[in-house]
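Quiz preparation item.
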């Protein structure tokens, strides 16, 4: 049966095109929240999300809208993250809806993540309504951008909605479009319960909260339910939805989205994509799930003060409670002591976790250079996944190695295309496609992921003056001629600085890192030699001459406050140093080591 009074939708957009602003406007227009209660961007609930203006965790909001046809509709808005690292969370949110609003900034046009996200939505079978935002801007060119959407994406834009999420212009049209253009969900109330587990997180008051989309049947308070993948049964304690405030109710019916709690101990006990069914009257088959997200980028996290190890372990466990895509395992480094090897969905995910550990949990950390997961095939036929270059087996035992490749889509204005193509080629990229839409080029490349974690974003942004946009998906593994480069400081290998790289680039990367370390490691009382080696062969060498470090020397004794400030800075910096042998290596060296200047 059609559930004509419900519409489930998400908003897909490139970062900064106004998704959160539009979501807030819709919430406000439906009267779910008083204007004075509007904090900037309601849906981005975590502090870091708000500060960085990015959406990480998918959230859902139920709105009540009385349309021009006089009927009152239940609109369920699923928020989706906009950043490439979280593509997996996008697809699972989309699986819970029937339609999407495609928001495109009318002054910017289609960007790489517009494309990636709209294709996810079309793959999920969504009806997509194009929405041109920011038409209040003098630079807005809605007609040109409409044409671009037709040319690049192939979506009919005749009925595209023109809005300004900032001023509120056109918000009513968006609401009408949702009701008239998106399909109503379908579902059978009398069938056995089938609910899609969309997300779960830990709430300090309510415990583990499970976000679901009911496909068939009814989910009631007090019901005994079973998770089909894990087979574990629970008693439902409470049922409700968000407006975005929490509202408790007695049941959720087909087509609806909401949450339940059931005395579940850990988020890890809930599997996103799983089907929730009735324990006594279970459904015969689960709903189609999603592929689990796997960390593709790994790095070491070490406490600067060894006494913080236990705190770090507890903090990681807490973060993991709410982020099943984040993984960690203990790691010991000769250079850095006891720490953890941590796996992330991408570089942004890494930065976010690192920042939260330092800020929320007040930990001083050393982060080692990120590495991808290599597959090492040994001569004895075994295969190992290598998360840490320091664990690379003796080359004599290795038959061959494989590295992960990605398929990247880059959109860039014509005038910057040349340098972008050069960058892709330098990074061992293989061109798949190159097309134009107006003044913008769209290049599709296959690239080794390890070349992308080498500061690819930063380079891309700087050579295109910030105009290029980038999106990728992990593609496949391929055999590759890889070697491990070790970095030696005063003849001692610093395990945390070693890295795996394609043989053809090993020497130049090794040299680059030695040069970088020369700038980053402060001069000390003795000479320091920095070397890069492949096996026993030294491929690069730099030295830092001995000098007494005196940051106040250039102040000519005059300005006492400036002197004091510098000394404080130095003390602060010192906290972030790592004594290695006799040499102090600053934190920045570990992360910057792999960034080519
Ligand atoms: P993420 O949450 O990072 O995915 O970004 P987003 O797509 O949600 O963008 P957001 O809503 O945060 O908007 C980005 C910027 O554009 C903010 O500074 C908004 O104030 C601004 N903005 C959004 N809509 C409009 C609009 O209609 N007109 C103008 N002039 N600015 C807008």
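Solution:
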């Amino acid at each position: 049966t059609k559930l004509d009074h419900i519409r489930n939708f998400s908003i897909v957009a490139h970062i900064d095109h106004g998704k959160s602003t539009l979501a807030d406007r819709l919430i406000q227009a439906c009267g779910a929240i008083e204007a004075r209660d509007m904090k900037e961007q309601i849906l981005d609930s975590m502090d870091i999300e708000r500060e960085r203006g990015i959406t990480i965790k998918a959230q859902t909001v139920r709105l009540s809208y009385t349309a021009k046809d006089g009927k009152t509709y239940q609109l369920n808005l699923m928020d989706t993250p906009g950043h490439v690292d979280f593509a997996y969370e996008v697809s699972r949110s989309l699986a819970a809806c029937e339609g999407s609003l495609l928001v495109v900034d009318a002054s910017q046009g289609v960007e790489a993540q517009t494309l990636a996200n709209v294709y996810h939505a079309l793959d999920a079978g969504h009806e997509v309504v194009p929405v041109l935002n920011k038409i209040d801007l003098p630079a807005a060119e809605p007609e040109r951008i409409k044409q671009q959407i037709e040319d690049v994406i192939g979506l009919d834009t005749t009925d595209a909605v023109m809005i300004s999420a900032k001023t509120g212009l056109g918000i009513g049209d968006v609401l009408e479009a949702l009701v008239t253009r998106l399909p109503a969900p379908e579902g059978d109330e009398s069938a056995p319960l089938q609910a899609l587990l969309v997300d779960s997180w830990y709430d300090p008051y309510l415990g583990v909260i499970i976000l679901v989309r009911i496909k068939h049947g009814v989910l009631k308070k007090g019901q005994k339910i079973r998770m089909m993948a894990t087979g574990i049964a629970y008693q439902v304690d409470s049922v409700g939805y968000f407006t975005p405030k929490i509202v408790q109710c007695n049941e959720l019916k087909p087509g609806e989205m909401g949450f339940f709690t059931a005395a579940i101990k850990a988020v890890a006990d809930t599997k996103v994509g799983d089907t929730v069914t009735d324990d006594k009257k279970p459904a015969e088959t689960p709903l189609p799930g999603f592929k689990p997200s796997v960390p593709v980028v790994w790095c070491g996290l070490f406490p600067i003060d060894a006494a913080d190890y236990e705190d770090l372990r507890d903090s990681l466990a807490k973060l993991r409670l709410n982020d099943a895509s984040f993984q960690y395992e203990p790691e010991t480094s000769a250079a850095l002591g006891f720490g953890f090897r941590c796996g992330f969905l991408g570089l942004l995910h890494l930065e976010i976790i690192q920042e939260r550990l330092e800020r929320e949990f007040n930990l001083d950390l050393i982060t080692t250079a990120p590495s991808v997961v290599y597959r090492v095939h040994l001569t004895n036929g075994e295969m190992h996944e290598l998360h840490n270059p320091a664990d690379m087996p003796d080359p004599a035992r290795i038959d061959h190695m494989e590295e992960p490749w990605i398929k990247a889509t880059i959109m860039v204005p014509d005038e910057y295309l040349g340098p972008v193509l050069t960058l892709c080629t330098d990074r061992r990229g293989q061109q798949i496609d190159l097309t134009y839409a107006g003044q913008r080029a769209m290049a599709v490349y296959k690239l080794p992921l390890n070349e992308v974690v080498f500061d690819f974003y930063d380079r891309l942004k700087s050579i295109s003056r910030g105009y290029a946009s980038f999106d990728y998906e992990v593609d496949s593994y391929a055999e590759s001629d890889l070697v491990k480069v070790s970095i030696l400081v005063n003849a001692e290998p610093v395990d945390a600085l070693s890295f795996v790289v394609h043989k053809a680039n090993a020497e130049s990367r090794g040299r680059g890192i030695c040069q970088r370390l020369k700038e980053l490691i402060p001069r000390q009382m003795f000479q320091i030699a920095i070397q890069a080696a492949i096996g026993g062969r030294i491929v690069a060498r730099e030295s830092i001459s001995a000098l007494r470090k005196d940051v106040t020397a250039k102040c000519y004794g005059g300005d006492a406050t400036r002197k004091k400030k510098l000394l404080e800075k130095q003390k602060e910096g010192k906290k972030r140093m790592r004594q290695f042998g006799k040499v102090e290596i600053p934190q920045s060296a570990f992360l910057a080591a792999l960034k080519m200047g």
